[in-house]
Every structure is written in structure tokens, then in C-alpha cells.
Automatic annotation (TrEMBL):
Keyword Transferase tagged: yes
Any GO MF annotation of the entry: methyltransferase activity
Domain Methyltransferase: 48-135
Gene Ontology biological-process annotations: methylation
Source species of the chain: Acinetobacter guerrae
Keywords attached to this entry: Methyltransferase, Transferase
Superkingdom of origin: Bacteria
Pfam families for this protein: Methyltransf_25
CDD domains named among the record's database cross-references: AdoMet_MTases (cd02440)
Protein name according to UniProt: Class I SAM-dependent methyltransferase
Amino acid sequence: MSHVHLAKNIIQIYQKFGRDWSKLRGNHLYEKKWLNRFLDVLPASATVLDLGCGSGNPIAAYLIENGCQVTGVDRSEVMLEMARESFPEQTWINADIRHFHAEQKFDGILAWDSFFHLTPDDQHEMFAQFSAHAKLGAALMFTSGPSHGEAIGEMFGEALYHASLNAEEYRTLLTQYGFDVVKMVAEDPECTGHTVWLAKKMNHIP
């Protein structure tokens, strides 16, 4: 099976195993240190666009607890059902994060453990998405791989596609779309080995 096909299969996997994955993931917030850094860049009562929000637990839940108004976007209706059950006062939208469009601009944009399921070409295109939905001064946080390449993981017996650009490519794209890097850690040992980018929108770029 080609990598392109595996990338397209991501949505079906999370639709099929959404509830099982959420149980396996649990509510332990190993991302807390990074979420606090994200919150530190945000204003009070911030609006946050969570791209690939899943069930909303535990990440969106933590943002909501800290006063954020969350708009979550995910292509898995199963995951969104869980989000709506848990947080009916927030906004949950079934859409492909690559093609989602809102008139609203947000104080923060998050793509945690979702962005890295996209192909390298789609990742390039996502920076226009980030920019289009970011207010001036907005925080952007996403997870990537540590270096350029594609990798195939596994979830419940299904092949799970991941890809990454190299760090210099990400820095170039962020600059191109008006973001300054606030903090980046590759394979953070304090966050289960995640490679995390936190940036701030400093210039209006179309």
C-alpha cells in the first residue's frame, strides 16, 4: 500500500477506532507544560481553533478549564460525538483540517498530534490555513516529527501514517507566513518525546 493511500486512510482509522483510542489515550495530561506555554501567549477568554481536536479530552478540556472558547475541527464524526457530549457549549465541526474555512480569526491555533498525519505537501499548504485563521498576536502550536521523512506506526492493527519536514523548512514556512518561533523542542523528554513548535503571529501575511 502506498504512503499516499495510507495518509488518506487516517480519517477512516480514527472513525473506526475513535472511542477505543480515546479510552487508550486516557486523561493524563502529559502535554500540560506545553499547553501552559500556549496559554501564556493567549489573552484572557481566548478563542482557540483546535485542528484535529478528536474527542476534546484531555487537551481541549484543559483549554476550556482555563477560560478558552474552543472551536474544534475533526473529520471523525465518532470523535466529535464524544466532544459534543462532553462540551456541548463549545463548537465542534466535521471538516477536513486542510480545507476548513471560517470567517472568524482566532487568538490561538492548535494542531496537536494531527498535523503530523498529513503528507509533506499538505503540511506545506497548512501554513496558509494557519495564517488565514490567526489574529495578529495569535499563538500557534503544533507537533511534528524531528526530521524530514515519512514513518508508518500502528494503531489497533492498522498502519498509521506520519510525516515531517525538517526543522529548517518549518522555520522558513513560519517566517513566510508571519510567525515568529517562541519555543521549539525536538523529541521533548518531558512530553513523551514529542517534537513541539510554539509560534506567535507577528505580521499580517495574506
